[in-house]
């Protein structure tokens, strides 16, 4: 049995490094929650405060800043630190008007198989697609107008015509586990789930002035959460800030554009200006048309060997794509599997309990999907080595997200060859998971 010591080691490392940076600990850290778990009252606070900020012109200010510094904050190391500071500034101003405001997040990977049906993109929440002219005509942002220097006045627009599947939580987990440094991690997330959501929402979200749509802030709160999860997955990740192959040397002493503070000041959540935290294994015990976290549904998925990364895929797949599951000590932060599942996956788990007998290794019971994967990986040698007598082709399979359009890639100045290599790797991973007979909880 493997004994988990990673949290202890990471905690001591964090405290000593923070002390050396001389960044004070926050006295209060409001919890950013996954948006679908919010109560009606929390939604009202979120949307009414955002409406007030729109009326006062703050969305145009933040859009202007994003346009002005776009090229120096995308496809460079500054991407994560700048956006962490940027959305925290937005949150801080919102809290001036309403102290109860918290910048909650939308984890789009939960909706990966069918984002059009996300409960977040409904009239009572963020609103849906644009109308015939592209203008948003549902939700609290209906009728919003964008006015920016050098740009004709226009409506807030969206265009879901390019919306398809997103990177699933398995992709995010693989990126966290296989990235050896910040320089590996940053491009995979920036060109992956980050860009997919921007491009698929379309309209304003697909342009440099994307902060004019409030979805931008919920989305980037999630992107920041994923970075924070990577930072805690291994002790060496916390202060990792190195360049990728497309830029020169970068440093924690580099100044964050606009905010004139060093990158090192924003590296740790809960310290300095980062006075917030993220929820852990969010739950609201609800079922909607596409997703559920009802305890009986989660229990059915957790009990299924074919739906657990530690038991439902081959050992070779784990070694290549999920190496930290095979390590002596699997850190819970290295597994980014939300405790929401698709109703399709929940129904499959309940209808195919008999398949469990065909797997020699069984998941360790736990209250969440991630905890079960981690506990299982820390108890057994993960992955199967002999073929499982269940036809993979008859199972629900992960879908392959479409590639980004070249126009969007060029706008963000992504390296085309690097993007194509990343995309091909993700396609290979999805095909391998499907071939292994793995059934994603998010299909």
From TrEMBL:
Report keywords, A-Z. Answer: Copper, Metal-binding, Signal
InterPro entries, sorted = Di-copper_centre_dom_sf, Tyrosinase/Hemocyanin, Tyrosinase_Cu-bd
Q: Where is the Tyrosinase copper-binding domain?
A: 62-232
Gene3D superfamilies registered for this protein in UniProt: Di-copper center containing domain from catechol oxidase (1.10.1280.10)
Q: Which residues form the signal peptide?
A: 1-20
Q: Which residues cross the membrane?
A: none
Q: Name one GO molecular function term.
A: oxidoreductase activity
Q: What is this protein called?
A: Tyrosinase copper-binding domain-containing protein
């Amino acid at each position: 049995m493997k004994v988990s010591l990673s949290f202890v080691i990471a905690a001591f490392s964090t405290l000593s490094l923070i002390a050396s940076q001389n960044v004070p600990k926050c006295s209060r850290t409001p919890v950013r929650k996954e948006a679908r778990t919010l109560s009606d009252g929390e939604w009202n606070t979120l949307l009414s405060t955002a409406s007030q900020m729109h009326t006062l012109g703050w969305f145009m200010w933040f859009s202007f800043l994003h346009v002005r510094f776009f090229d120096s904050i995308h496809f460079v190391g500054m991407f994560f630190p700048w956006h962490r500071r940027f959305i925290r500034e937005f949150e801080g101003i919102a809290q001036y008007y309403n102290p109860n405001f918290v910048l909650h997040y939308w984890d789009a990977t939960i909706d990966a198989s069918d984002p059009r049906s996300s409960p977040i993109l409904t009239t009572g929440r963020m609103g849906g697609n644009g109308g015939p002219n592209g203008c948003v005509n549902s939700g609290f942002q209906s009728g919003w107008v964008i006015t920016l220097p050098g740009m004709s006045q226009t409506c807030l627009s969206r265009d879901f015509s390019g919306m398809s599947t997103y990177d699933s939580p398995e992709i995010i987990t693989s990126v966290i586990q296989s990235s050896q440094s910040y320089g590996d991690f940053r491009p995979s997330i920036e060109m992956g789930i980050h860009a997919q959501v921007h491009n698929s929402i379309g309209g304003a979200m697909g342009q440099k002035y994307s902060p004019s749509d409030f979805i931008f802030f919920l989305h980037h709160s999630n992107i920041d959460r994923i970075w924070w999860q990577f930072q805690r997955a291994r002790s060496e990740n916390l202060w990792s800030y190195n360049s990728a192959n497309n830029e020169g040397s970068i440093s924690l002493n580099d100044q964050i554009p606009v905010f004139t503070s060093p990158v090192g000041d924003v590296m740790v959540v809960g310290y300095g200006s980062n006075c917030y935290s993220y929820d852990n294994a969010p739950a609201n015990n609800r079922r909607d048309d596409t997703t559920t976290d009802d305890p009986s549904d989660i229990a059915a998925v957790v009990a299924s060997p074919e739906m657990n990364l530690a038991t439902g895929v081959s050992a070779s797949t784990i070694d290549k794509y999920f190496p930290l599951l095979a390590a002596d000590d699997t850190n819970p932060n290295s597994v980014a599997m939300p405790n929401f599942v698709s109703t399709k996956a929940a129904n499959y788990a309940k209808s195919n309990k008999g398949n469990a007998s065909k797997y020699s290794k069984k998941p360790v019971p736990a209250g969440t999907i991630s905890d079960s994967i981690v506990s299982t990986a820390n108890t057994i040698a993960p992955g199967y080595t002999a073929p499982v007598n269940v036809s993979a082709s008859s199972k629900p399979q992960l879908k392959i997200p479409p590639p980004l359009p070249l126009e969007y890639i060029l706008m963000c100045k992504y390296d085309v060859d690097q993007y194509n290599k990343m995309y091909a790797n993700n396609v290979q991973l999805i095909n391998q998971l499907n071939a292994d007979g793995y059934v994603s909880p998010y299909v």
